[in-house]
DNA sequence: TATAAAAATGAAAATAATTCCTATTTTTTA
DNA sequence: TAAAAAATAGGAATTATTTTCATTTTTATA
């Protein structure tokens, strides 16, 4: 277990936790640059990867193949607005699916990713 | 509407429809090459893209960001085996989610993507 | 059928996101 | 405080995909 976080590591972690917008690596890099202009991209990518491995943040892929980072590591799903791109966290649980998958397919489901697409509240008003 | 399919276009379509393994673009390229060694990658990518736009096949992204192609365009979900990589089609419908999303978040859900991960039957035996 | 116009192709270059490499800097340890 | 370990910046390398474009193939039509 790592005892201390380096300055950059802490800034990268905070950038993901504070910005609840589900930033991409590039966006995290932008946030970190604001505070420490000497920060490099490789450090951002490396630390994001390590934070994911530690379970501090999670990496989610959007249907277009873009990766976003989420400071909320609890099991939840996402809804992406096709117009503004906003990403909502939704507590959509698929516990029932676990048993159904085992019973019907003999598939031992260990995790799931649900991604909804549509229009968010703002974009339909 | 396109009347006829070119030779390559037809081979590319067939490769996706016949191989129910959910191939990547690279794999489709491999299948097409077997029948027509002169086929190029750009043609495979272009046609896959067009077939998706036409709704003949669909493109799905896996959590690692890899794109796979599916000849079954009906709304269904996928379960990926973490051991062997097998991809199962599963009729997991989220109709209820549609109303719930509208009622709770004002989100007009138009489509969804569900991806389960775990171990398939073969890999647990 | 011959031919002009349109569409599709192959090959290679360009792109974009991410990972890798490495010399240097920073931090930790004792 | 010195040696060892860890982390960094910056750039090169990688990989999957897209774009470009000259050539080939197909289609339409005179």
Structural class of chain A: alpha+beta
Strand order of the largest sheet of chain A: 4-3-5
Q: Measured on Cα atoms, how large is the radius of gyration of chain A?
A: 17 Å
Percentage of helical residues of chain A? 40-55%
What's the quaternary structure here? Answer: homodimer
Work out the helix count of chain A: 5
* Number of domains as seen in the coordinates of chain A: 2
Question: Which CATH architecture of the largest domain in chain A?
Answer: Orthogonal Bundle
Contiguous runs where pLDDT drops below 50 for at least 5 residues of chain A: none
- CATH C-level class of the largest domain in chain A is Mainly Alpha
**In angstroms, what separates the terminal alpha carbons of chain A?**
48 Å
In terms of DSSP E residues, the strand content of chain A is: 15-25%
Q: Mean pLDDT of chain A, as a whole number?
A: 89
Q: Profile the largest sheet of chain A.
A: 3 strands, mixed
What's a quick, concise take on this entry?
The first copy, chain A, is of the alpha+beta class and 125 residues long. In chain A, 42% of the residues lie in helices and 23% in strands. Chain A has helices at 7-18, 25-35, 41-54, 95-105, 121-124, and strands spanning 58-61, 67-70, 77-81, 87-90, 108-119.
SSE layout and pairing:
The structure is a homodimer of 125-residue chains.
Chain A: H1 7-18, H2 25-35, H3 41-54, E1 58-61, E2 67-70, E3 77-81, E4 87-90, H4 95-105, E5 108-119, H5 121-124
Parallel strand pairs in A: 3-5
Antiparallel strand pairs in A: 1-2, 3-4
Chain A binds a DNA duplex (30 and 30 nucleotides) through helix 1 and helix 3.
């Amino acid at each position: 277990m790592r005892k201390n976080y380096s300055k950059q590591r802490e800034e990268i972690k905070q950038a993901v936790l504070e910005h609840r917008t589900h930033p991409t690596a590039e966006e995290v890099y932008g946030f970190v640059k604001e505070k420490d202009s000497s920060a490099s991209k490789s450090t951002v990518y490396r630390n994001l990867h390590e934070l994911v491995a530690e379970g501090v943040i999670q990496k989610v892929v959007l249907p277009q193949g873009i990766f976003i980072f989420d400071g909320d590591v609890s099991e939840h799903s996402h809804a992406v607005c096709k117009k503004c791109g906003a990403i909502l966290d939704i507590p959509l649980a698929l516990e029932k699916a676990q048993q159904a998958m085992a019973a019907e397919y003999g598939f031992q489901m260990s995790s799931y990713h649900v991604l909804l697409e549509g229009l968010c509240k703002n974009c339909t008003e």
